[in-house]
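Figure 3 (text version): structure tokens given as input.
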């Protein structure tokens, strides 16, 4: 692939995905090449071309404090540990949207979410649990094998009703150490927010952002594949056995 063609392809990607560094851009170029039968560019070449043409992400000037955490969040098998976390999205008009979501700690798929302009409640978390179970297993009343439900110590997660409900449907409540916020770090980057004029617009766009996360966003821990690519690859490998 000549550099001119590669530059054009890279520019088209970063125009829509300005927060992507060269590794994720390379992953998307590799995906495009696999779909079209072309040879994928070398990651070092992608880095060189992006550097020459000023397309690399700019590093911030400040140093980030490293936060320690205990334990390993990621697991090697799907449906053995799910994690849930929340985030707050500030809208351009000053309003805020609060979102809680659930990820599988193996394949990183975002399996469900709830959103509100008020605080996330215990009832919201219980609705999220049901949505997550139904996403993976359909309309069942209880999962067949216990699955860990890993969260921080927020009141909506630690409420007695929430923990009781979790156990009733086969989930095993677990909390990360209070002093270790990074132990749920994998749950903090799933949504890329661009247009956010008001709460209604943000909430309406959440499904599309989740689809982007699941279908497009490459993860280093998944070999720079998206969650759905990783799931499909895993299924193909199992079916070949």
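Below: residues designed for each position.
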């Amino acid at each position: 692939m000549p550099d001119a063609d590669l530059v054009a392809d890279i520019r088209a990607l970063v125009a829509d995905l300005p927060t992507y560094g060269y590794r994720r851009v390379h992953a998307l170029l590799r995906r495009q090449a696999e779909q079209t039968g072309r040879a994928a560019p070398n990651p070092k070449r992608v880095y060189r071309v992006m550097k020459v043409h000023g397309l690399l992400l700019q590093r911030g000037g400040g140093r980030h404090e490293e936060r320690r955490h205990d334990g390993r969040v990621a697991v090697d098998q799907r449906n053995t540990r799910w994690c849930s976390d929340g985030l707050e999205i500030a809208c351009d008009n000053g309003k805020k949207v609060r979102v809680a979501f659930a990820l599988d700690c193996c394949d990183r798929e975002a399996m469900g979410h709830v959103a509100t302009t008020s605080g996330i409640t215990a009832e919201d978390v219980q609705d999220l649990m049901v949505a997550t179970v139904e996403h993976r297993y359909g309309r069942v009343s209880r999962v067949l094998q216990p699955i860990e439900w890993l969260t921080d110590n927020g009141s909506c997660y630690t409420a007695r009703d929430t923990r009781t409900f979790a156990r009733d449907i086969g989930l095993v409540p677990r909390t990360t150490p209070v002093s270790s916020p990074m132990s749920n770090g994998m749950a903090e980057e799933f949504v890329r927010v661009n247009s956010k004029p008001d709460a209604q617009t943000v909430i309406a766009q959440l499904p599309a952002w989740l689809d982007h996360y699941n279908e497009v966003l490459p993860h280093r821990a998944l070999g720079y594949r998206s969650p759905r690519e990783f799931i499909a690859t895993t299924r193909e490998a199992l079916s070949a056995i």
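The mean pLDDT is 84.
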